[in-house]
Amino acid sequence: MSKKKLILLEGLPKIKPVGKLILGVDREEKRVRIPSDTRKAVYDRAKKRCECCGMPLRMSQGEFHHLKKPITKPRPSNLQFLCPTHHKLGHKWKTRTQRTMLETKKVPNIVRKKVRKHPSSPYWREKPKTTKKKPTTRKTKKATRTRKKAR
User: Fold this and answer.
1) What per-residue confidence (pLDDT) applies to 135?
2) Which of 26, 27, 112, 151 is 20 to 30 Å from 121 at the Cα level?
3) Is 6 a domain residue?
Protein backbone atom coordinates (compact mmCIF):
# COMPACT_ATOMS: atom_id res chain seq x y z
CA MET A 1 0.00 0.00 0.00
CA SER A 2 1.14 3.47 -0.63
CA LYS A 3 1.63 6.07 2.10
CA LYS A 4 -1.45 8.03 0.96
CA LYS A 5 -3.72 5.01 1.42
CA LEU A 6 -2.25 4.28 4.88
CA ILE A 7 -2.90 7.84 6.00
CA LEU A 8 -6.50 7.64 4.82
CA LEU A 9 -7.06 4.32 6.63
CA GLU A 10 -5.56 5.61 9.89
CA GLY A 11 -8.03 8.50 10.04
CA LEU A 12 -11.10 6.23 9.84
CA PRO A 13 -12.69 5.01 13.05
CA LYS A 14 -12.34 1.30 13.80
CA ILE A 15 -15.41 -0.73 12.86
CA LYS A 16 -16.96 -2.58 15.81
CA PRO A 17 -18.44 -6.08 15.41
CA VAL A 18 -22.10 -5.97 14.48
CA GLY A 19 -23.21 -8.29 17.31
CA LYS A 20 -21.80 -5.96 19.93
CA LEU A 21 -23.41 -2.93 18.30
CA ILE A 22 -26.83 -4.59 18.23
CA LEU A 23 -26.79 -5.68 21.89
CA GLY A 24 -24.91 -2.64 23.16
CA VAL A 25 -22.30 -4.75 24.91
CA ASP A 26 -19.28 -2.77 23.76
CA ARG A 27 -18.70 -0.88 27.03
CA GLU A 28 -15.79 -2.09 29.11
CA GLU A 29 -16.12 -2.65 32.84
CA LYS A 30 -13.47 -0.80 34.83
CA ARG A 31 -12.36 -1.79 38.29
CA VAL A 32 -12.96 0.70 41.07
CA ARG A 33 -9.83 1.38 43.09
CA ILE A 34 -10.07 0.41 46.78
CA PRO A 35 -9.57 3.51 48.96
CA SER A 36 -6.77 3.36 51.54
CA ASP A 37 -9.13 3.79 54.51
CA THR A 38 -11.22 0.82 53.32
CA ARG A 39 -8.05 -1.25 52.90
CA LYS A 40 -6.95 -0.33 56.41
CA ALA A 41 -10.38 -1.23 57.86
CA VAL A 42 -10.35 -4.68 56.20
CA TYR A 43 -6.72 -5.28 57.25
CA ASP A 44 -7.51 -4.36 60.88
CA ARG A 45 -10.66 -6.53 60.87
CA ALA A 46 -8.52 -9.46 59.71
CA LYS A 47 -6.09 -8.76 62.60
CA LYS A 48 -3.18 -8.55 60.14
CA ARG A 49 -3.73 -12.16 59.07
CA CYS A 50 -5.16 -14.12 56.14
CA GLU A 51 -8.87 -14.55 56.84
CA CYS A 52 -8.71 -18.17 55.66
CA CYS A 53 -5.56 -19.74 57.12
CA GLY A 54 -4.59 -17.11 59.70
CA MET A 55 -1.04 -16.63 58.44
CA PRO A 56 0.42 -13.30 59.65
CA LEU A 57 0.87 -10.92 56.69
CA ARG A 58 1.85 -7.36 56.01
CA MET A 59 -0.61 -5.36 53.95
CA SER A 60 1.74 -5.46 50.94
CA GLN A 61 1.98 -9.26 51.09
CA GLY A 62 -1.75 -10.01 51.13
CA GLU A 63 -4.46 -9.49 48.53
CA PHE A 64 -7.94 -8.03 48.80
CA HIS A 65 -10.61 -10.39 47.49
CA HIS A 66 -13.84 -8.88 46.12
CA LEU A 67 -16.99 -10.75 47.10
CA LYS A 68 -18.94 -8.82 44.47
CA LYS A 69 -17.89 -7.58 41.05
CA PRO A 70 -14.89 -5.23 41.27
CA ILE A 71 -16.86 -2.53 39.45
CA THR A 72 -19.09 -2.00 42.52
CA LYS A 73 -18.12 0.44 45.25
CA PRO A 74 -15.70 -1.37 47.58
CA ARG A 75 -16.83 -1.57 51.20
CA PRO A 76 -15.28 -3.52 54.06
CA SER A 77 -18.26 -5.89 54.01
CA ASN A 78 -17.55 -6.70 50.33
CA LEU A 79 -13.84 -7.43 50.78
CA GLN A 80 -11.64 -10.10 52.37
CA PHE A 81 -7.92 -9.95 53.17
CA LEU A 82 -6.28 -13.18 51.99
CA CYS A 83 -2.84 -14.61 51.29
CA PRO A 84 -2.11 -15.14 47.54
CA THR A 85 -2.68 -18.91 47.84
CA HIS A 86 -6.18 -18.60 49.28
CA HIS A 87 -7.11 -15.67 47.04
CA LYS A 88 -7.06 -18.13 44.14
CA LEU A 89 -9.64 -20.29 45.97
CA GLY A 90 -12.10 -17.38 45.95
CA HIS A 91 -12.43 -17.46 42.17
CA LYS A 92 -14.18 -20.17 40.22
CA TRP A 93 -13.99 -20.04 36.45
CA LYS A 94 -17.10 -21.01 34.52
CA THR A 95 -18.05 -20.57 30.91
CA ARG A 96 -21.36 -19.11 29.92
CA THR A 97 -22.95 -19.17 26.51
CA GLN A 98 -23.47 -15.76 24.98
CA ARG A 99 -25.95 -15.66 22.13
CA THR A 100 -26.18 -12.80 19.68
CA MET A 101 -28.19 -12.47 16.51
CA LEU A 102 -25.20 -13.56 14.46
CA GLU A 103 -23.32 -16.08 16.56
CA THR A 104 -23.21 -18.15 19.72
CA LYS A 105 -19.97 -18.28 21.68
CA LYS A 106 -18.73 -19.40 25.08
CA VAL A 107 -17.37 -16.63 27.27
CA PRO A 108 -15.27 -17.22 30.40
CA ASN A 109 -16.92 -15.92 33.56
CA ILE A 110 -15.59 -15.57 37.11
CA VAL A 111 -17.83 -16.63 39.98
CA ARG A 112 -16.69 -15.00 43.24
CA LYS A 113 -17.26 -16.80 46.50
CA LYS A 114 -16.41 -16.11 50.12
CA VAL A 115 -13.35 -17.95 51.38
CA ARG A 116 -14.09 -19.61 54.71
CA LYS A 117 -11.87 -19.93 57.73
CA HIS A 118 -9.80 -23.11 57.54
CA PRO A 119 -9.94 -24.67 61.05
CA SER A 120 -7.09 -27.16 60.52
CA SER A 121 -4.57 -24.39 59.89
CA PRO A 122 -1.79 -24.26 62.51
CA TYR A 123 -2.10 -20.47 62.66
CA TRP A 124 -5.62 -20.62 64.14
CA ARG A 125 -4.70 -23.00 66.94
CA GLU A 126 -4.59 -21.21 70.24
CA LYS A 127 -1.37 -21.66 72.08
CA PRO A 128 -1.86 -22.81 75.66
CA LYS A 129 -1.05 -20.08 78.13
CA THR A 130 1.93 -21.06 80.17
CA THR A 131 2.19 -19.36 83.51
CA LYS A 132 5.22 -19.73 85.65
CA LYS A 133 4.37 -21.28 88.97
CA LYS A 134 5.60 -19.24 91.86
CA PRO A 135 7.47 -21.21 94.45
CA THR A 136 5.35 -21.68 97.53
CA THR A 137 6.67 -19.71 100.49
CA ARG A 138 4.02 -20.97 102.82
CA LYS A 139 5.50 -22.73 105.78
CA THR A 140 3.81 -25.72 107.17
CA LYS A 141 3.18 -26.14 110.89
CA LYS A 142 5.54 -29.09 111.05
CA ALA A 143 8.46 -27.13 109.60
CA THR A 144 7.98 -24.23 112.00
CA ARG A 145 7.84 -26.63 114.99
CA THR A 146 11.10 -28.27 114.05
CA ARG A 147 12.82 -24.87 113.71
CA LYS A 148 11.64 -23.80 117.14
CA LYS A 149 12.99 -26.97 118.76
CA ALA A 150 16.35 -26.52 117.09
CA ARG A 151 16.84 -23.07 118.67
Assistant:
1) 62
2) 112
3) no
